[in-house]
């Protein structure tokens, strides 16, 4: 296991990057704690796989260093980094049996045969393939081959880190849930440093101790699932995390009040003057619908019943917004106003969260 340090790290696939957009990975400075489980989360093309390949040694960064427990491994080949990596699409040896595939990393390192047998049986049970250990991998489904690939990545107990690059893409939904649970249990039992790349927020939030959210080549926030939900540090985090994501409204901020669509909205804190494009963000769970009164004018567009709750789609002065109601909660007759829970409102300037000066009614 290892603490992983990204020191002034950046990467471009161009020989001479000249502008910000030329960098696939913009400068990063982070320490990833030894033994924690991280998820790299973001949309396709945001730099997740680039960063993972730099950590594993498949790609050398254009700038900066990678350190494992303080040792510079920037130029060290993958084999010297003592990591295991599982890719998006299964990589198995068709001429080998399932058991031989699982045993391969241990045999390569000259492990004791009794230990190899013990580990292969344990991993085969974990991935539900203990009855297929003597079967050739050729002819197995993509789903089964990816389970072998996952198992081979997990069979070693002495690795510095386990890296997973969207490993459940080809796995059926029911098995995805089981394998995520097993990966979490593996982390709990052995304490490996794990980094899991995904664009699926459910996978990220259920797997990781900390989620690393990436956008446009940058890490925009590292936090627990609760921190990402309650206090998104960037509007992309608010939009990307949650279903539906955070509502964002252009607003004028003055002290403890925001002015939005001709109405005043009480904030849960007081703010210094906000420059740039100022916005407030509030999740649909904290939006309340009312008929009449002094709330923010809004128009109900439609109501979608998704079983466990209702999603109310709204037009707020030309901005599409959402509110979530409990399954048994009706939409108020003639609803045309919104109220927000003040403590759940975040303030943003040019997409970045603004820290309040003080909470309303008390010192910060």
TrEMBL record:
Any single Gene Ontology cellular-component annotation? ATP-binding cassette (ABC) transporter complex, substrate-binding subunit-containing
ABC transporter domain segment(s): 4-241
Annotated SUPFAM superfamilies: MOP-like (SSF50331), P-loop containing nucleoside triphosphate hydrolases (SSF52540)
Which spans are transmembrane here? none
This entry's Gene Ontology molecular function terms read: ABC-type ferric iron transporter activity; ATP binding; ATP hydrolysis activity
State the InterPro entries in the record.
Answer: AAA+_ATPase, ABC_transporter-like_ATP-bd, ABC_transpr_FbpC, ABC_transpr_MalK/UgpC-like, Mo/tungstate-bd_C_term_dom, NA-bd_OB-fold, P-loop_NTPase, Transp-assoc_OB_typ2
Q: Keywords, A to Z?
A: ATP-binding, Cell membrane, Membrane, Nucleotide-binding, Transport
Q: Which family does it belong to?
A: Belongs to the ABC transporter superfamily.
| Protein name as catalogued | Carbohydrate ABC transporter ATP-binding protein, CUT1 family
Q: What organism does this protein naturally occur in?
A: Limimaricola pyoseonensis
